[in-house]
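Fold this sequence, please.
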Amino acid sequence: MEFTAQQIADYLHGTIEGNPQVRLHDFAKIEEGRSGCLSFLANAKYEHYLYETASDAVLVNEDFRPRESVRTTLIRVPNAYAALAQLMQLVDSMKPQRKGVDSTAFVHPSVSVPDDCYIGAFAYVAEGASLGTGCSVYPHVYIGSSVSVGEKTTLYPHTTVYDGCRIGARCIIHAGAVIGADGFGFAPDADGYNKIPQMGNVIIEDDVEVGANTCIDRAVMGSTIVHRGVKLDNLVQIAHNCTVGSHTVFAAQVGMAGSSHVGEWCQFGGQVGLSGHIKVGDHVSLGGQTGLLSNVKSGSVLLGSPGMPVRDMLRTSVILPKLPDMSRRIDQLEKEISELKEICKNSKP
């Protein structure tokens, strides 16, 4: 597939600076550019690559002003990074779509498979499941009874969707994800731990992406809910009866304990941990490895464990390496004070 720089600029409502007829057929990082490729520059620290790249065209922000002469063609757009994503989505949508049911797949007779669906080798679709138009079910996927999968949703290999769960339209569930496994619920008694049956389900709304080997547990009662537009990285754990608000993003290894709730448009760095039964407001940003033990109000930006305002955490991080020496000095001071007290006591008439 090949486009001219002018065609790309027209599609992105951008402007050309250079050769509008240069032909482009691939993407490349600006530092690894080669003939026929389109690159992008969105971060000023990579600007030096612009003057030496072999890419034939580069997306740049419309307010970018080069400090040296540029050999490549520039395509100026309001936001170079967003424009790159838009172009890559366009190219991806043009790939031929797989269709049909592999002969080794099992689809229960009660399931109606739309003509434009794809079901790969050794996939299993149980009784009462519902598949939307244009969905793709890759090899070794398990879809339990009464599961619903929305239109144009993709389930990659070895995805497991337990009975009764619901997945919306245009979702992407990556390899090895488990949707609807039992929540971690046990009632302790004198003889050990009695399992509490998890009778609810998981609801994933439209336009959600779930990373590889991520687990979203079913609710004890009711539903664990991942709302519209959420993006989850690999190895995320969402426990029973949690909710994740619309357009929130989690980096890898985020963990939510049972019945914790996160608002809309939040951003969590890697290995963030939430204790159970807490509420996080909207537009909250948590740096990597932040730990939350209590509710967080909307708009907060926190770091550390327990989570605290970033400025406080940075001050704390400066003090932490000094603590061993401070402890020794305090011990010495306490010893000297004790000796002084003894001297004063013995010197009294």
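Residues 35 and 192 are 67 Å apart (CA to CA). The chain has two domains: 3-93, 100-311.
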